[in-house]
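I'm stuck. Please check this protein.
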Amino acid sequence: MKHVAVLAVTCVLSLAAAAAEPEGPQRVLVLSPGAGNSRNSEGDFIQLNDGRILFVYTRFTGSASDHGAAFLAARVSTDAGETWSAEDTVILPNEGGMNVMSVSLLRLRAGEIALFYLRKNSTSDCRPMMRISKDEAATWSEPVLCIESVGYYVVNNDRVIQLDSGRLVIPAARHSLPGESFSGRGQAMCHLSDDGGATWYPSQSILDAPEDSKSGLQEPAVVPLKDGRLMMLCRTDQGCQMRSFSPDGGVTWTPAELTDIASPVSPATIERIPGENPYLHWINACKTGTVASSDFSYAGPLTEVANMGNVALLAGVGQKLEFDVASMKITNNEAANQYLTKQYRAPWDFMKF
């Protein structure tokens, strides 16, 4: 059977009945692509003061690539996430030359809700913006540009944090500067605000991966540690997450170092669980048997989509490829199958198709 690979948002809720064993994660919202909606992804949640949960995500209306046209849409739950509104509400129309995407929602210490997102104008201009709501997401302020210098900066969804001091921290990967073309090799840094987001400044440290790394440091995540330091984890092609620490709230950072957190070229999500040490979602899943936020049922098809995009580029412009998921082969272009794997030296021949 032939399949078309698509990206969809899936919300999973962990439910436990009183005086009974936990039922386990429940799939409660699936936002599948459709006509005029090629992809749904990169969102975040926040609880409103009246108890409702607001979910804002990136709804693509152009191509399914990261550069396709997109706007920010929302769904709402009134029952702690068990059910969700049936129709989208437009939170922010597309105001970028390409799109707006990658949402972080944050309840500020002053009580307002901050909405962070990327405004992507071109492959040389992608920067985070901030809007404030003082009426529980009913309306939003005019945007504040969080990085003044033009460049291509990647900030993943659910990444912005506020420290006990009130400082706002945006972890970002820089992939180009003015006059430069986009580079897949990222440099990690942070952008900081000490006045509630009115003004921003960059960290003094700009982090690099080892020289042999093609990915560099991508899609960083930051979490406060109990000793007052910040820890940053970065996606790399070094077989693991790379790590850095900041002793001064994100202004300076130690050189990035390899860790024992084995990882493909994928980002990590790290959060502080109240009263506990920070856990990576997938490590917690290994220890408890719960489903990680991006387990293989999600990450596998997502990786497949990304890799098929690369294969399509290698196959040549204008070539339509039909990929059979069951056999893991391209059925209408035999020559393109060569790009699905490579020749492994003996005895590592387990990747044959």
Summary: The mean pLDDT is 88. DSSP finds two helices and 23 strands in the chain. The chain has three domains: 1-145, 170-293, 295-353. The first helix runs from residue 281 to 288.
